[in-house]
Every structure is written in C-alpha cells, then in structure tokens.
C-alpha cells in the first residue's frame, strides 16, 4: 500500500504588518520593570553570512524590539514577574503552525533567559522554552517569512513573521550569554519535529512573484 503524503501550500501576505490590539491602561507597576535590550545590529553583525536572499525592506529596517508595548498588558507583566524575567529583547505577534497544520496567531516574547509563546485571545501562556534548550534555527535561503526553532529535548516550533530577520538576530545575541551562540542553518528544505511523534518537512521554491512553501508530513 502506497503511503500518501498530504501537501499543504501556505501563503503569507508579506505586504501587511500584523495588526495589534489597543494597549490597556494602567499596566505599569507590580514591582516589575522591563528593560529592552541595547542590541544595536549592523549589517555585518547579522547571522546571515551572505547566504540569505533578503527583502529590500528587511535590509533597511530599524529594530524596535517591543512591538506590542509589553508594559501595557498586565497579564504579560504578571507572567514575566512569576518567571523572574525582567529584560525583554523582543515582543510581537506571529503565526505559529500547529502539529495538525493549522495557523494560530500567537505572541512571541523573548527575554534574556527564555522564549514565551502566548495566546493573545485567552491571555494564556502556551509554552516557555529556556534559551539554553535551543540548539539551532532553520531558515530557507529565500525571501520568505518562515523560521523553525529546534529544541532537541522537547518538540520544535515553526513560525512565520515579517520581522524574521530581527527575531533571528535577537535570538543569536541572547543565546550567546545564556548557552553559547545558537546555530543558524540555511536550506531550502529542512525538517522539524512538529510534535513528539510527528516530523514534518518544509520545502521552499522560488517562483515568479515570490516563494512557494510546502509543509509535508514525513
């Protein structure tokens, strides 16, 4: 009996930035002060080493770090305070791909110690990953929005963001002090562990007008 692979084509609209909820008032306090990283990145410091085809917009984009105003969201402050994290180096809304292939809107929050994945609809913490557990990041060599974070002791994460360049750069810088600089691997086909018992392959192909992306069950 032939094994059937289901191909799912995923398209990300690169022309629009994610929209954010209106910030809530009165969020500062709770005895917790957030410090954004002082990372200043120049082109020769980025971990792309000339192998990545970059969109023109990403070559000349200033890095802000916190795109959702973390301090204005009490539930985010409470979660960070509980975990003892005080330095936020990146915060934004992203798309996360589930093991079943669905796309979910999530908040990606990176501190100097951990990665947080949160549900903006329920204000729930879905996952916290120590930076020391991250082995590498996988990206294509093309100008797409996808990236995978590989965590050998758990299962991996596949996400998409228009700020992928900044996320990769921030994670490389943050892991230098946490566990040693994380590896950044470039390939137009890579595998990731979508769940404990499910491996998927992401394939990228440059086509007229953009990049075609396929996510295949192995």
Automatic annotation (TrEMBL):
Residues 52-218 form the TH1 domain. Residues 1-25 are annotated as: Disordered. GO terms for molecular function: cytoskeletal motor activity. Pfam families: Myosin_TH1 (PF06017). Residues 10-22 have a biased composition (Basic and acidic residues). Coiled coil: none annotated. InterPro entries: Myosin_TH1. GO terms for cellular component: myosin complex. This is TH1 domain-containing protein. The lineage of its organism: Eukaryota, Viridiplantae, Streptophyta, Embryophyta, Tracheophyta. The gene is LOC115960139.
């Amino acid at each position: 009996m032939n094994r059937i692979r289901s191909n799912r084509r995923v398209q990300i609209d690169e022309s629009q930035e994610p929209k954010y909820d209106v910030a809530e008032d009165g969020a500062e306090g709770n005895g917790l002060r957030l410090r954004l990283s002082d990372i200043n990145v120049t082109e020769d410091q980025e971990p792309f080493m000339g192998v990545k085809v970059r969109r023109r917009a990403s070559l000349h984009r200033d890095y802000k770090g916190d795109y959702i105003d973390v301090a204005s969201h009490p539930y985010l402050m409470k979660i960070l305070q509980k975990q003892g994290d005080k330095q936020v180096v990146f915060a934004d809304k992203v798309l996360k791909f589930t093991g079943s292939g669905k796309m979910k809107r999530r908040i990606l929050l990176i501190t100097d110690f951990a990665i947080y994945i949160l549900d903006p609809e329920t204000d729930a913490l879905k996952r916290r990953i120590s930076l020391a557990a991250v082995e590498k990041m996988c990206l294509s060599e093309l100008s797409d929005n996808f990236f995978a974070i590989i965590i050998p002791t758990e299962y991996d994460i596949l996400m998409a963001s228009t700020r992928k360049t900044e996320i990769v750069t921030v994670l490389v810088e943050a892991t230098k002090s946490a566990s040693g600089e994380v590896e950044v691997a470039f390939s137009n086909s890579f595998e990731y562990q979508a769940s404990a018992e499910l491996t998927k392959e992401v394939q990228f192909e440059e086509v007229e007008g953009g990049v075609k992306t396929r996510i295949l069950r192995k």
